[in-house]
Write a structure and sequence with these properties.
By secondary structure, the protein is mainly alpha-helical. Helix content is about 75%, strand content about 0%. The protein contains six helices and no strands.
Length: about 120
């Protein structure tokens, strides 16, 4: 049994219950845009955290494409982190869930970038 980070539950929540998702994470001042929230859930499901973890744990003869994918994923997680913190600061997202999510995003960004830039022996 290996360690795994999986965004599927978060993605399913946004895709299946966009109104509840917005009530939980976003400020009451923002209108609910169900189609966009569902698209967000779909994007998260297809590009989420499981891919970088799977890539970093694999045994590949040519590591450059994997390392490049991890670097790109780390940049994506960093962008998500900055966006979440900005949205919390501006009042678009509720602060407590945003800050809790930001901790996980920072961890994923750091792990992906560390593994992508790490020199192999």
């Amino acid at each position: 049994m290996g360690f795994e980070i999986d965004d599927s539950k978060f993605a399913i929540h946004a895709t299946v219950a966009p109104k509840h998702y917005n009530e939980l994470y976003m400020s009451k001042d923002l209108p609910v845009n169900e189609p966009m929230t569902r698209w967000f859930g779909l994007a998260l499901a297809t590009c989420g955290g499981g891919i970088p973890i799977t890539l970093s744990a694999g045994d590949y003869s040519d590591k450059k494409p994997v390392k490049d994918a991890l670097k790109a994923s780390g940049a994506g997680w960093t962008t998500a982190l900055v966006t979440t913190l900005y949205n919390a600061h501006e009042g678009h997202q509720k602060k407590e869930p945003a800050y809790a999510s930001a901790v996980g995003m920072a961890a994923m960004a750091a792990l992906c970038l560390w593994r992508g830039f790490r020199e192999d022996e």
